[in-house]
Amino acid sequence: DAVERGEYRHYMQKEIFEQPRAVAETLEARVGPNGVLPNIFGVDGEELLTKVQGLHIIACGTSYHAGLVAKYWIEEYARLPVNVEVASEYRYREAVVPQGSLLVAISQSGETADTLAAMRESRRRGYLGTLAICNVPESSVVREADLKLMTRAGPEIGVASTKAFTTQLAALALLALHLAKRRGLDPQRYQELCEQLQHLPRAIERALTIEPQIVQLAERFIHRHHALFLGRGMHYPVALEGSLKLKEISYIHAEAYPAGELKHGPLALVDEDMPVVAVAPNGPLLDKLKSNLQEVRARGGELIVFADKAAHIEGNAANGSVLRIDAGGDFIAPAVFTVPLQLLAYHVAVLRGTDVDQPRNLAKSVTVE
Ligand code: G6P
Questions:
Q1: Which of 7, 129, 237, 296 could pair covalently with 301 via S-S, beta carbons 3.0-4.6 A apart?
Q2: Which catalytic residues are annotated (predicted)?
Q3: Would the CB of 109 count as within 6 Å of ligand 1?
Q4: pLDDT, tens only, 157-167
């Protein structure tokens, strides 16, 4: 055990630091100077994907959050409608399946009972076919899917998923770009997005250097009972993932909200005991997010902002701090901003003395309903 963990105290920490390599391996021989390689979904995949007119994504837990990010990417770049749903809901309701829909199942293990059952259920619902995005080649989800795109994260031991998530994002980014090209995305923008994606391992590596600052920040959470995570657009799912990590391993109650919803409820909870973590990359929604953050400040809430190096956002020593991350571009930013949130959850849990790799009541793979 100690040998496998090497210099790291927990598997989770090791797996967080393995992300540059895991993502590089997931992208390897799949995207190059001429864009996404045509054969990455196999020969049948090529043909099937040309017919796709919409996607339904099903998954659980962290994999569900990866699906939510993909919705923003695919709708923006490929202009195809995407529905994302937790598998346990999808399997028991009469979903409407428009013609030409592809069912995408995302799963690290490929054995999650609800995801597998939802995929089986989809068979009688009239999809074009099924695509599995999965980390375990010999798993049930992979065996039963028509098309597969493997994440190459390697074995993930920590119950709280980290490198599985960022490699899922890498695989979904490939899918988004493949569809975008087919659907006529401007060639220059396509090229630029492919370059961003190729730089993702490097961008994650840079983001990891923030760890010493996160260790200090984590101290401020030790005695907290609640935390709020905010994001907008494709960073709302990043906020969801950050809050899930914190609750899974530190047992602090955490909730994520799209920042624009703040005034529709959660603002009532904000006082000096409520840390508010915001993901603030540079982009068209930055100004709107800033005014959301103003609302938190005005109520004395402690703000922790993860901001893009390029974003104009000021710290305020009195009740907030701004930590700078180089997002490496608008497209890959969700994967990059995930990293400091993983580190935050990890270091808070370490300080609170919880069983980081095996949090109470949770399982790595939920194979029963
Ligand atoms: C469990 C794990 C999570 C994981 C979820 C879905 O809840 O603790 O980390 O995200 O299952 O698992 P899957 O293997 O289908 O991605």
A1: 296
A2: 364
A3: yes
A4: 999 999 999 99
